[in-house]
Each structure stands twice: as C-alpha cells, then as structure tokens.
Amino acid sequence: MKNIVIAAGYATRLGELTKNFPKPLLKIGENTILGRMLDDIDRIPEIDEHIVITNHKFAGIFEAWAAEQHYSKPITIVDDGTETNETRLGAVCDLLFAMEKLQIDDDMLVVAADNLLFFSFQAFVDFAKEKGTSCIMCHEQPSIEKLQRTGVVELDSDYRVLGMEEKPQVPKSHWAVPPFYIYLRKDLDLVRHSVENGCGKDAPGNLAHYMVEHSILHAWRMTGGRFDIGSIDTYEEAVKRFG
C-alpha cells in the first residue's frame, strides 16, 4: 500500500507564513504538521512508501526535508510542475499525476497534509481489509453550518456509503467526511478515468463523491479527533495547544 500525501496547494489563507514555504512543513513544537502524520503512518506494516505530491515552487523544500528524515519507508517527492495558486492542478488531478508518473498499481492511502490527528491510521487500514472495499472516513458533526462546508454521507447499519454530497445546504445526515481515503487496487481504473468522466478536480472529496457513485465504499468512523489547520488563527492555536 502506498501512502500518498496531497501537498500541492499554496495555502494562501496563511498569508506570509506560506508565501514561500509549504504549510505541511510548518512546525508544531519540535515536529512538522506532516511529520506528526508520518510518524503514525510509517509504523503501518502494509505501507511500503510515502509519496508526497507537491508543486514546483515547494518541491525543493520538500526534497531537502525528505533527505533529513529517518522513516523506515522511503519518501518520494513528486513535482506537479505548477508555480502559482492560479495554475494549480487541483487535488484530484495531482493524485492522477502521481499515479501516472510513478505507474502506481497498488492499494493507496490518500491523505491531506494539513491536519493534526489524534488516532492511528492502522485501524482505518484494518477496516478496509475487513470490508474488502475502498473506504472513506467519517465522524459525527452536530453543527449544520460546518456540515454545509464539507462532504456529508448517508450510511447503512454496516457503514456502507449509500450517498455523498459535497457542501450540502440541507445535509441528509450528521456524518462528515474528512480528507482521508483508501482506494483499493481493484478500483484504480475508476480513479484513473474519474476526471475525464466528470469528477471535480479541486478538492479530494470530489473523487470520493465520484467513487461512491461508481463503486461500493464503506466509511470508517474516526476513533479520535483531528485539528484542521486552514488559517493563521488555527495554526497559532495548534502551536499553542499542541506544540
């Protein structure tokens, strides 16, 4: 299983902090946002490689960072060739770019690189193996306002995904979807042809939505919380609380 980290955004909401530096490598205490995530994922036996897809502007910074790491699994940096927020490929196209460039033909754990997590991905991987399907994560979100800004899924009693909506004005459930996914090898052909068949390009949730409509997916209920770093305020709060 490949661990694919989507890290090609430009984090414009963080202003000067990320004008010339990638958000995933911002420090939280003695570690980085991405480092905290890889500390967990690297321990998963099924993972055999970390693949970080980034942009041309930040690729050199990621390469220098990767050269200093001592994880048990190798780190591969993929440069998508873009240099500005206006010319970015979008998360889905970045994933497809990495799959094509590296000729990936394996199960994939796909993660966004800007979250602090308070649970292990091992249980998520185990869940996907048990179900034998591609999987997404979910967590209960009581706030309608927050549900209107994320993906929302309907589930049956076995946590099979019955439907998914992106940023619904009238959410059909309280199950919100964070940006962490497992796409099994048997579904990779669907992934590869998703954009040409109408899948949205920008947010990673666009692909999950597409896959729900074209395959069988299950949703793993998060066993702990997460902290999404999307602005200067939330970054400063993360440093204060967790650094």
Précis, in short:
With 243 residues, the protein is of the alpha/beta class. Helix content is 30%, strand content 25%. β2 and β3 (31-32) form a beta hairpin.
Characterization of the model:
Helix content is 30%, strand content 25%. The protein has 243 residues and is an alpha/beta fold. The mean pLDDT is 96. Strands 1, 4, 5, 6, 8, 9, 10, 11, 12 and 13 form a ten-stranded mixed beta sheet that branches. The protein is globular and about 45 Å long. The relative contact order is 0.18. The chain has helices spanning 33-41, 56-67, 91-102, 122-131, 144-147, 188-192, 204-214, 232-242, and strands at residues 2-6, 27-28, 31-32, 49-54, 75-79, 108-112, 115-117, 134-140, 151-155, 161-166, 175-177, 180-183, 217-221, 226-228.
Number of strands: 14
Radius of gyration: 17 Å
End-to-end separation in angstroms reads: 30 Å
How would you state the average pLDDT, rounded?
96
Q: What keywords describe this structure?
A:
single chain; 243 residues; alpha/beta; ten-stranded mixed β-sheet; two-stranded antiparallel ribbon; 30% helix; globular
Helices and strands in order, then pairings?
Elements: E1 2-6, E2 27-28, E3 31-32, H1 33-41, E4 49-54, H2 56-67, E5 75-79, H3 91-102, E6 108-112, E7 115-117, H4 122-131, E8 134-140, H5 144-147, E9 151-155, E10 161-166, E11 175-177, E12 180-183, H6 188-192, H7 204-214, E13 217-221, E14 226-228, H8 232-242
Parallel strand pairs: 1-4, 1-6, 4-5, 8-13
Antiparallel strand pairs: 2-3, 6-12, 7-14, 8-11, 8-12, 9-10, 9-11
